[in-house]
């Protein structure tokens, strides 16, 4: 097996070495998120090293449901996951969810699987895949009546877009939301017409993000599953469908999919609505929540309001709508500066979509005038 990464086993002056965690206030822990040695940093989320045995995860994307999930895992299953020592939330209106979370948990000694997977012998890779399959089977043996994250809140994960969805109060609402997205995709010819509607009858403990970057291999060759942000109660097919849709770590995905429980029909359903799950384009506004610009093709896609009704785009604030309005003065350079306009004209005549960078630079207000043979700006009637 692999040797642990040296920087993960770094010995030195960690801020809480030799100190009792119970004596440390929440305010002190919040300040340590900015000053302690960083193990991981992505967007608004940081993981910092507090001591030889403790780390803290914090930021605007850390919600209370993650700590509740880890406590449930520790009490109800034998899955290897970090143990929570303290968790708290602080209101922060500058964050997308209006809160900033902090979780103090065990530091898992070992090496992230994404750092050593390709160097492992085939037999070791096979053994790791079997461990993953055992984890998933154990999770799927835990049936939960209430769908979604533990304790409620927004539904997050690969199938709920980057900015979450819901919350939904019961399985009927979840099923209705997915079927509405499916209907939208069918309406704009973004998925086959023969895809049947979703029918969710069972919800089980689901991780939703099985990936080498979320697995730690310890010195005994045992796997630990970390980062439970997207976990909750979801249909069993979500696990294998998320693996199937993962674009990176193809060798790992193939090895895992060969042994984990599969649901071909449901995987096909979830794969057919990727149009509605595509990452929306972000525009910068003064408003604290993220506002998403519409990047749909003018001749074949629904309006922004239709996408918002479908849950594919979040609602914008009044200030955001003003910025996104096509009638507002465009901050982008004139379309006459585009040197590729002839190629784009040909693409338009062939009913091919306008490239995204053109739509973004023109505020989605550019179309080709076939009669005059030049690009012009106008309000698209999407």
TrEMBL record:
Q: What are the coiled-coil residue ranges?
A: none
Q: Which GO terms describe its biological process?
A: translation
Q: Under which name does UniProt file this protein?
A: Large ribosomal subunit protein eL39
Q: Where is this region: Disordered?
A: 288-353
UniProt keywords (A-Z) are:
Ribonucleoprotein, Ribosomal protein
Q: Which residues form the Aminoglycoside phosphotransferase domain?
A: 66-258
GO terms of molecular function: structural constituent of ribosome
């Amino acid at each position: 097996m692999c040797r642990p990464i040296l920087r993960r086993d770094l010995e030195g002056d960690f801020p809480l070495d030799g100190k009792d965690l119970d004596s440390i206030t929440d305010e002190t822990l919040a300040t340590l998120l900015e000053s302690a040695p960083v193990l991981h940093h992505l967007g608004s989320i940081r993981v910092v090293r507090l001591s030889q045995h403790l780390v803290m995860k914090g930021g605007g994307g850390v919600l209370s449901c993650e700590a509740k999930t880890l406590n449930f895992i520790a009490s109800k299953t034998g899955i290897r996951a970090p143990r929570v020592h303290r968790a708290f939330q602080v209101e922060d209106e500058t964050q997308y969810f209006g809160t900033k979370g902090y979780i103090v948990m065990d530091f898992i000694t070992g090496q992230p699987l994404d750092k050593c997977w390709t160097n492992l012998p085939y037999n070791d890779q096979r053994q790791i895949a079997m461990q993953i399959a055992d984890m998933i089977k154990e999770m799927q043996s835990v049936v939960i009546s209430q769908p979604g994250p533990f304790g409620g809140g927004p539904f997050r994960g690969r199938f709920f877009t980057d900015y979450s969805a819901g919350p939904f109060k019961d399985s009927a609402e979840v099923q209705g939301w997915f079927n509405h997205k499916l209907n939208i995709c069918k309406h704009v010819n973004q998925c086959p017409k023969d895809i049947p509607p979703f029918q969710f009858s069972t919800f089980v403990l689901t991780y939703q993000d099985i990936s080498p970057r979320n697995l730690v291999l310890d010195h005994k060759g045992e796997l630990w599953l970390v980062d439970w942000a997207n976990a909750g109660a979801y249909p069993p097919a979500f696990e294998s469908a998320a693996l199937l849709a993962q674009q990176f770590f193809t060798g790992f995905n193939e090895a895992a999919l060969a042994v984990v429980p599969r649901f071909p029909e449901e995987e096909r359903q979830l794969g057919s609505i990727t149009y509605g799950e595509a990452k929306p384009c972000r525009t910068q506004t003064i408003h604290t929540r993220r506002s998403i610009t519409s990047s749909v093709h003018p001749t074949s896609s629904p309006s922004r309001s239709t996408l918002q009704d479908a849950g594919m785009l979040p609602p914008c604030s009044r200030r955001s709508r003003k910025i996104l309005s096509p009638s507002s003065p465009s901050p982008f350079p004139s379309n006459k500066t585009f040197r590729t306009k002839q190629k784009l004209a040909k693409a338009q005549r062939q009913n091919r979509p306008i490239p995204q960078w053109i739509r973004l630079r023109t505020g989605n207000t550019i179309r080709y005038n076939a009669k005059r043979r030049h690009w012009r700006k106008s309000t698209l009637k999407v």
